[in-house]
Amino acid sequence: MKRIGVTGHRRIPPDVITHVQDALRALLGGQPGPLEVLSSLAAGADQLFAVIALECGAELTAVIPSGDYELGFCDAGELAGFRRLRGRAAQEVRMDFPHSTDEAYYAAGAYIADNCDRLVAVWDGLPARGPGGTGDIVSYAREAGKPVTVIWREGVKRD
Q: Has residue 157 got a pLDDT over 90?
């Protein structure tokens, strides 16, 4: 079974969203044989990736950074999306952190990178804004020799 993980920004600008959706559908829909995807189900790229992967028939593994992870969602829609996707996950991996911290997010991202055959990064190419951000996980995966597929529209900056 092929395993694809995701890391990405929580906020995807409107100028990029259709491009990201199309690229994810092409990548995930074009996989031969069984597919498992790994996602922390954060708002933005993680949830979008998980939704499209499930549409493509993939098996979802939720990687939960901390015991209080749900407290980090900014609005009811993001939290509802997390809960809905978590309920559809075939399995769940929980990091051993009671609270959502940069260390917990980094650990979850590193777990995803370590346990996939390819990492998909919905990423503008800029450094992470904090420890454990998308740029850090891409660097980690590349240093570990994992193939990384970056999806973004050139020239578009995130907020």
A: no
Domain of residue 90: give its range: 2-151
Global pTM?
Answer: 0.95
Which tokens is 25 given?
């559908």
DSSP state of 71: G
The edge-to-edge listing of strands for the beta sheet with 118-122 is 91-94, 59-64, 35-39, 2-8, 118-122, 148-151
Give the domain CATH number at 95.
3.40.50.450
Q: How many domains does one find in the chain?
A: 1
CA angle 50, 53, 55 (to 5 degrees): 110
Alpha-carbon distance of 50 to 60, in angstroms, equals 7
